[in-house]
Amino acid sequence: MVTVGTVVFVGTNRAGRFIEIEDCDSLPPFRDDSDLHGAIEIAINGVDVLDRGLADDVITTWAHVATLVNDYAHGRRAVVPLPDQPIVISLKPLPRAQVLVAVESPAWRRVATADAEDLIFTLRFAGNQFFDKLEELTGRYWPQVRALLNAGSEFQQP
Is residue 126 within 8 Å of residue 6, measured between CB atoms? Predict the structure, then answer.
């Protein structure tokens, strides 16, 4: 089973907390199209491969995940870094329509296997939920990231 969600950090330092993007009625100020502190949470069959401990600029993180999904869906090598961290996320095809998901730093590694179709669908769905909410709250749009995320899928805009 694959679950994917997005949390954003609201507040300052110790007074702040992570909240689900769906529960936001406003966002903390951020500049340009980045610097929104948050995290993508990905759990696969009980393994947390991405979590709040890897919080970063969540808009850029979603842009990197969109590239990862696009590369995998088009049969290319699917490896992307997390922004501003020495951590990479990779997807490697396995037999029987499975995918190996790895999140690696120089000091540790998290891995899990999932049904490839389920993983890609769930990442696309969660990414679209994130950008829908972001667009609702900011009035800004990310068409290039969405095009990467959704290319060749049922989510692709005409």
Answer: yes
